[in-house]
Amino acid sequence: MYKSKIGKLQEYDFIAENFLSLLEEFGAEELPISNSHAHYAGKMDWSHRDPFDRLLVAQACIDGLTLITDDDNISLLPWVNTLWYQKRSVSPSSTVRTLLLVAGGGFEPPTFGL
Q1: In the sheet that 65-69 helps form, which strands lie side by side, from edge to edge?
Q2: Domain residue spans of the chain
């Protein structure tokens, strides 16, 4: 909701109202955030301070998933599998940078002392 308030996610109301049906339409499922995700997010050796980005990266690492993103802060990390998603031409106020996690495999992220 915060990104909606600051004008970065104009689609928030639509997404929030239709979240479960959108998941079903895309054949996706909701990923709960666990204590291990939160702990990993806090321990990562990464200067990026956005807590949501840190949680997405932690989920991808712990659950062996691939992040689809156009965010260089994420896609340049050597320990997370990413696919690059190039945005369509949309107004800057309607950007959704990191889209979803998909099943991946064969990649071992660092443990950061965990």
Answers
A1: 82-84, 65-69, 98-103
A2: 31-103
